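[09:14] KT: can someone run the structure on this one? pasting the chain below
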Amino acid sequence: MTPQSLSTFWVAISKRLYEKICSRLLQNYYVSTTGAVILNRDVEALRSVAMEAGTDHAHWDILRELLTLYMTPPNALKSILVGPEREVQSTKGLFYRAGQTKSLIFMSRRMDFKTRTNAGVQKSEWAERLLADLGVSDPSEQALDKSMYSAGRTK
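[09:31] RB: done, structure tokens below
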């Protein structure tokens, strides 16, 4: 294989691995703070391996940023999502870098995003307040569009 074709091969493998991780994570798991630390370490290891070959690995950087949503206390999530300006249209937060829907879907997989009540499972109070404060709806109430987590799509 030529160096160029080898690089293309490893980028393709890296993207496919990223897509599988995102798909499994978002379809099957809810992540606790402790689990997020372990997951972040594993993703960092995968990113390091992927960086050894190929040139297009920005998808791992976005995933690492999205994983911070699991480790951040609820009262600090707004500044991560929209940046220090606290405006939804800001160019500094995850809404800009990863996309609003993708960011909210990842956030909805926090272990504390929903709580069990006598009436069933509902969004936690902090999640309701945050979504209302941002003026956005919860995309996790819809069916998950797996194509949104393609490594080729940044937003």
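[09:33] KT: thanks! The first strand starts at residue 114 and ends at 117.
[09:34] RB: yep, looked fine to me
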